[in-house]
UniProtKB/TrEMBL annotation, chain A:
This is 3-isopropylmalate dehydratase large subunit. It holds the Pfam family Aconitase. It comes from the Bacteria. CDD domains: IPMI (cd01583). [4Fe-4S] cluster binds at C357, C418, C421. It catalyses: (2R,3S)-3-isopropylmalate = (2S)-2-isopropylmalate. The gene is leuC. GO terms for molecular function: 3-isopropylmalate dehydratase activity; 4 iron, 4 sulfur cluster binding; metal ion binding. GO terms for biological process: L-leucine biosynthetic process. The lineage of its organism: Bacteria, Pseudomonadati, Pseudomonadota, Gammaproteobacteria, Cellvibrionales. It comes from Dasania phycosphaerae. PANTHER family: 3-ISOPROPYLMALATE DEHYDRATASE (PTHR43822:SF9), HOMOACONITASE, MITOCHONDRIAL-RELATED (PTHR43822). Binds 1 [4Fe-4S] cluster per subunit. Keywords: 4Fe-4S, Amino-acid biosynthesis, Branched-chain amino acid biosynthesis, Iron, Iron-sulfur, Leucine biosynthesis, Lyase, Metal-binding. Its EC number is 4.2.1.33.
From TrEMBL, chain B:
GO terms for cellular component: 3-isopropylmalate dehydratase complex. Catalyzes the isomerization between 2-isopropylmalate and 3-isopropylmalate, via the formation of 2-isopropylmaleate. It comes from Dasania phycosphaerae. The keyword NAD does not apply. Residues 1-132 form the Aconitase A/isopropylmalate dehydratase small subunit swivel domain. The lineage of its organism: Bacteria, Pseudomonadati, Pseudomonadota, Gammaproteobacteria, Cellvibrionales. HAMAP family: LeuD_type1. Pathway: Amino-acid biosynthesis; L-leucine biosynthesis; L-leucine from 3-methyl-2-oxobutanoate: step 2/4. This is 3-isopropylmalate dehydratase small subunit.
């Protein structure tokens, strides 16, 4: 089968529709529809504009909210910015406020109900829409690709560049299709799918590519599930992950505060309906998995590709052929304090974290609550945090009574922030502590100096909180049924 | 970015080889949320006799009286005379930020570390390469004459001494163009401002909801 020259991938379409200028050196100017701004990567960018006397090119294309440094602790949070104990964190959050004020950028401030993790807030508000180009000074910006948008994580100098020019200088990437067909089994989640994909292609597998997630599994998946998948595209090495627009996308967007209003809605939908890869479009790389082969996943090491199914054992260096992987495995086992050959279900846990831009949306919280309902946290788990992704997610969860379920089970119900995903606020692991975490990175020290992170789905994290060690959540749930 | 055309100013010495970026601006100052304000901590460990701490007011700190930048005769200097491999070490852009914030507009040395050299151009600071012999001559003249000023003329690609002697230097054409016109990456993109506006107008017609106020 030869690819038709006129058939385009979703990425090709989004690229072409935003191409301002192709330069002779192979780079291009791409128009950016939306920039999301948070407190960590924006201060030097605003400062750069101020020094150069440059205005924002388009003020209303920017939307800001503080997330990395805001406390999740409800009492610390109650004091607003002034109540943030850590001085450097407080200054960063205050600086975002000051910059948004002076440049006229809309900001959902620390205790605004619309505040939250920037990658939860964007879609929730309809501030990220199908067909948009979206950037943010954060590598997990690929999340927004779940809506059929082209979303890039960028650096601080690029943040300033987009603020000043509304364009990003980019070279076009290659197209990769990750295709998963079949039906996911009971208790198998979007997180397990994306971890299985990363386990298969590795953390560099998507380098230089824009990944489109296609196939029956992603078509069947909710929009929030697609966000979980696209969020971790960067963990497979790709700056961009995306899913084609379908009825679910359009239904999701409808009625959100920044979504097109009545008179523009039909035209928008007509345009969005074209946002899929054409039949016969060419992908440079295609990776295929089948749903039947995916069961709940747990990372055992210090890279997201160090992942196995929950019913497996921790691998040994000798299980790998390449010397580089053997030494990486040896180093990871030492850091993680694990022994090759031990069952994943024998890993004892000290903490549990349910949250992050990967898994802090209402569906994630519902799934976790369903597991802990009527059960109690294991005594050896000294802390189990549930950190909703936004004030609105928190409100919704409380209206559904999820907060009570968590609290009754012995979990802590917190305020929206990035929290223990990267430990920039006071939520941290101690040295040597093992954590079942619904976040996206298990790097050394990511959740605190010497901390040991295991990436899992919300259901698996909840089950681990109850058992005190990893368990196959499918067994815990079916035992009850 | 600031334009660089012609700069005439007092020359000051950094008379040692292999000055690294940690020496230019120590790591504890990288926590800042700003890219300005590094000037008081430029060469911090050489300049003061106590330990530099972020946020500390430098005006009351004990000065190292042996360090030339603390000499009255070099106050207000805008041209730094330096030795080979200036700016080696890390990639931190804080190094040119600190030199710029202190008030330097140009550095003259026999050679530079690559990354530092590139970073200078992004920040309006001109790093000039002159031969060992010429740099030696400039150091000698500077030490001999208080208030010694150098003129750096980017257009003519010349360094001129008070006696009127002129030394030519090389600079890549595109970098010269960007400095003369004050163009950083943003400045270069803004040269296509008309193309961006034209695109924006067309795009707004096609997708007006992307431009609606919430």
């Amino acid at each position: 089968m030869s690819a038709s020259t006129s058939a385009k991938t979703l990425y090709d379409k989004l690229w072409d529709s935003h191409l301002v200028k192709q330069r002779d050196d192979g780079s291009a100017l791409i128009y950016i529809d939306r920039q999301l701004v948070h407190e960590v990567t924006s201060p030097q960018a605003f400062e750069g504009l101020r020094l150069a006397g440059r205005p924002l090119w388009r003020v209303d294309a920017n939307l800001a909210t503080p997330d990395h440094n805001v406390p999740s602790d409800v009492s610390e949070r109650a004091g607003g910015i002034a109540g943030i104990v850590d001085e450097i964190s407080r200054i960063q959050v205050q600086t975002l406020d000051d910059n948004c004020e002076s440049f006229g950028v809309t900001e959902f401030k620390i205790n605004d109900v619309r505040q939250g993790i920037v990658h939860v807030v964007g879609p929730e508000q309809g501030a990220t829409l199908p067909g948009m180009t979206v950037v943010c000074g954060d590598s997990h910006t690929a999340t927004h690709g779940a809506l059929g948008a082209l979303a890039h994580g960028i650096g601080t100098s690029e943040v300033e560049h987009v603020m000043a020019t509304q364009c990003l200088v980019q070279k076009k990437m290659k197209n990769m299709l990750v295709k998963v067909d079949g039906k996911l089994g009971f208790g198998v989640t979007p997180k397990d799918v994306v971890l299985a994909v990363i386990g298969k292609i590795g953390t560099a597998g998507g380098n230089g590519h824009a990944i489109e997630f296609g196939g029956e599994v992603f078509r069947d998946m909710s929009i929030e599930g697609r966000m979980t998948v696209c969020n971790m595209a960067i963990e497979a090495g790709a700056r961009v992950g995306m899913v084609a627009v379908d009825d679910k996308t359009i239904e999701y967007v409808k009625g959100r505060p920044f979504a097109p209003k009545a008179e523009q809605w039909d035209a928008a939908v007509a345009q969005w309906r074209t946002l899929h890869s054409d039949d016969g479009a060419h992908f440079d790389t295609v990776v295929e998995l089948h749903a039947d082969d995916i069961i709940p996943q747990v990372t055992w090491g210090t890279s997201p590709e160090m992942v196995v199914a929950v019913n497996k054992t921790v691998p040994a260096p000798s299980d790998f052929n390449e010397p580089v992987k053997q030494s990486a495995t040896k180093r990871a086992l030492e850091y993680m304090g694990l022994t090759a050959g031990m069952a994943i279900t024998d890993i004892q846990l000290d903490k549990v974290f349910i949250g992050s831009c990967t898994n802090s949306r209402i569906e994630d919280l519902r799934a976790a609550a369903a597991v802990v309902k009527g059960r109690k946290k294991a005594a050896n788990v000294i802390q189990a945090l549930v950190v909703p992704g936004s004030g609105l997610v928190k409100k919704q969860a409380e209206e559904e009574g999820l907060d009570k379920i968590f609290i009754e089970a012995g979990l802590e119900w917190r305020d929206p922030s990035c929290s223990m995903c990267l430990a920039m606020n006071s939520d941290k692991l101690g040295a040597g502590e093992h954590c079942a975490s619904t976040s996206n990175r298990n790097f050394e020290g990511r959740q605190g100096f010497g901390g040991r992170t295991h990436l899992v789905s919300p259901e698996m994290a909840a089950a681990a909180a109850i058992a005190g060690h990893f368990v196959d959540v499918r067994e815990m749930m079916s035992a009850e049924a | 970015m600031k334009k660089f055309t012609v700069e005439t100013g007092i020359a000051a010495p950094m008379d040692r080889a292999n000055v690294d970026t940690d020496m230019i601006i120590p790591k504890q100052f990288l926590k800042s949320i700003k890219r300005t304000g590094f000037g008081p901590n430029l060469f911090d460990e050489l300049r003061y006799t106590d330990e530099g701490v972020p946020g500390k007011d430098c005006s009351s700190r004990p000065l190292n009286k042996e360090f030339p930048l603390n000499f009255a005769r070099y106050q207000g200097a805008t041209v730094l005379l330096a030795r080979e491999n200036f700016g080696c070490g890390s990639s931190r852009e804080h190094a040119p930020w600190a030199l710029d914030d202190y008030g330097f507009r140009a550095v003259i040395a026999p050679s530079y570390a690559d990354i530092f050299y590139n970073n200078c151009f992004k920040n309006g600071l001109l790093p000039i390469v002159l031969s060992d012999e010429i740099v030696d001559q400039l150091f000698t003249e500077m030490y001999a004459q208080e208030g010694y000023q150098l003129t750096v003329d980017l257009e003519q690609q010349q360094v001129r001494t008070p006696s009127g002697e002129a030394f030519g230097f090389e600079v890549e054409g595109f970098r010269k163009h960007c400095l003369l016109n004050g163009l950083d990456d943003i400045g270069v993109t803004l040269q296509d401002a008309e193309a961006i506006k034209a695109f924006e107008t067309k795009w707004q017609q096609q997708s007006p909801w992307l431009f609606a106020k919430s």
